[in-house]
Amino acid sequence: MPESLPPFLIFYVVALLALPARGILRTVLMLSAPVLGAWCVWQTPEGSYGVLQVLQFELTLHRVDRLATLFGYLFNLAAFIAFVYALHVRDRVQQTASILYAGSALGAVYAGDLITLFVFWEMLALTSVFLVWARRTDRAYRSGMRYLIIQVLSGLLLLGGVIAYAADGNSLSFDYIGLEGFASWLILLAFGIKCAFPFMHNWLTDAYPESTPTGTVFLSAFTTKVAVYALARAFPGTELLVYVGATMATFPIFFAVIENDLRRVLAYSLINQVGFMVVGIGIGTALAINGAVSHAFNDVIFKGLLFMSMGAVLYRTGKINGSELGGLYKTMPKTTVLCIVGAASISAFPLFSGFVSKSMVMSAALANDFHIVWLLLLFASAGVFHHAGIKIPYFAFFAHDSGIRTQEAPTNMLVAMSLAAALCITIGVFPDFLYRLLPYDTGYNPYDATHVLAQTQLLFFSALAFVWLNLRGMYPPELPSTNLDADWLYRRLAPSVIGHTASMVARWDAGMRSSGRLVLVRAAQLVNRHHSPGGFLARTWSTGSAVFWVVAILAVYLLLFAVGDGMALR
Amino acid sequence: MKDEKTYFFDRPENVARLLRVFYGVCIILAVLDFVIHRHVYHAWENLWLFYPIYGFVGCVLLVLVAKWMRTFLMRDESYYEDLERARTDSSGDSRDA
């Protein structure tokens, strides 16, 4: 039964088959996986397939419902675009890791139970870290190590949570969990790490910009969106998430404004966008959930497009810092235009994809009386336009001319970017294509005069602020720098605390050892002095002196006796 | 640089033209606020020019606060690498000793 074929299996098999392949065969094989995968998604009606009995557990490898189908299409689509983008790469490690990684994301989406979810949760970590290491620099190696540790930690928390959850007598099927009891907190924390909740977000801003030009495109598509999917399934309507999401939407934009590495700017803006999704899941109404998952759908495509355009810049110039770039529109005009389409989409300009999904979350926030959150999201919307919509294209392609003269991105990259850009505009103009796939039917229409005018005003006057600050010379210049973030806690504070404690213990230990050794040495010296040849106790005594000492001892004895006796008499 | 073709934004008058168009659109959008009737969900939306002002002020504040954050968050580009190097060097030394 081909329709019950779990999509992850297609990718895993293709990864194996493509290993020895080269040339056209390799291209066909790689692109066949997402095409076949999408066909499977289209063919498979709702239901549970691939049910296995392992020990006393019933595992469901392939559970299909509306939510899973939406993400199924999304991940196949994202994989297809990213494979096209990476076709020029001749690196078996990256090739295999990226196919397995995309397959694992699909595995997690179709997991019908928490154990299967855990397995693919860990597979996501294990396969994606090779995309970071594939850069083959010392920095990338260290960064990948930190990434792997944090991702595996998330997996362990999930496993612990699942065990505790089962021990409480709950079913292991991967459905609504809700925030009740210790086990659910563990599971939420595991999801939260992968979702880049505040203070758990630095694995993303640390590792993504260290990956290869093509690797980052894959990374940006899957891990966080699997986490959003898991949250949408297990914790919809959890109010805490509204505030967590609002924090995620706002704080990264400050870091994005002062960050120099343009792919790190995008990593911060990724957290900002995921923040909108988390708010939507937290609100939990039909409109909000629709907004969250459709925004995830759009974000994968427009954020992928932005990462692709920056990847093309890095690939062609070998540079990615805003301080070293500028004026590239002269030699990479097509990439420039495609990047601007991505920038307009992430900024949620009317007629671009971000607008039709983000506005749902905003409307839901207002409709459910989260007024402060709504204001924060509005600020975040203006901010994302500022740092991702303007800063990225401006500093890479315009600004001051860096004097770099390069050439246009390779054809396969341009094709992949054009596909993504076409999707951004199509979904923006005809949102019904996307709305039809959403879990709920809400009859929402983003294109009324109120929304369009409000959003356009907000964006144009944000742009006016940029222009004004620039003309006044108040806009912070791009500077080569590292900005401290929460990772300072584990990259600077913890090692130095551990280092200090260890060195204190070592010093104390060394002190004890050396004083002990000194006592022993002194004692040995003493014994040695008295017993060695010529020592006091080893001397041969003359009879005269021996008699003298005997008399002396007797005299002392007598004296003591006399004193003791006298005391007794008194 | 041999390639000295003049590109679009190399001419200041083109930049000025673009900015004039941009300012024009901003003014039109501000005027539309008084023309188009909108459905209001939040009391603040009734304020005149709420969205334009919120966007402009929000972004200016964003940039100024971010700039101020640089004063205590900014470190050298190789900050963490230097730390890591210092750490490996010192542990190397203690092993040698």
**Number of helical elements of chain A:** 20
Q: Tell me the helix content of chain B.
A: 55-70%
Uncertain residue ranges of chain B: 93-97
Q: What is the beta-strand fraction of chain A?
A: under 5%
C-alpha end-to-end distance of chain B: 55 Å
Series of secondary-structure elements of chain A, N-terminal to C-terminal: HHEEHHHHHHHHHHHHHHHHEHH
Count of spatially separate domains of chain A: 4
Class by alpha and beta content of chain B: mainly alpha
**What is the CA–CA distance across the termini of chain A?**
117 Å
What strand line-up does the widest sheet of chain A have?
A: 1-2
What is the average per-residue confidence, as pLDDT of chain A, rounded to a whole number?
92
- Average pLDDT metric of chain B: 82
Computed Rg of chain A: 34 Å
Number of helices of chain B: 3
Largest interface: A-B, 57 and 54 residues
Tell me the number of strands of chain B. 1
Structural shape of chain B: flat
Number of domains of chain B: 1
List how many beta strands of chain A DSSP finds.
Answer: 3
Keywords (chain B): Membrane, Transmembrane, Transmembrane helix
Transmembrane segments (chain B): 21-41, 47-66
Domain NADH:quinone oxidoreductase/Mrp antiporter transmembrane (chain A): 111-381
Transmembrane segments (chain A): 70-89, 96-112, 147-167, 182-204, 216-234, 240-258, 265-289, 295-315, 335-352, 372-399, 411-430, 450-471, 546-564
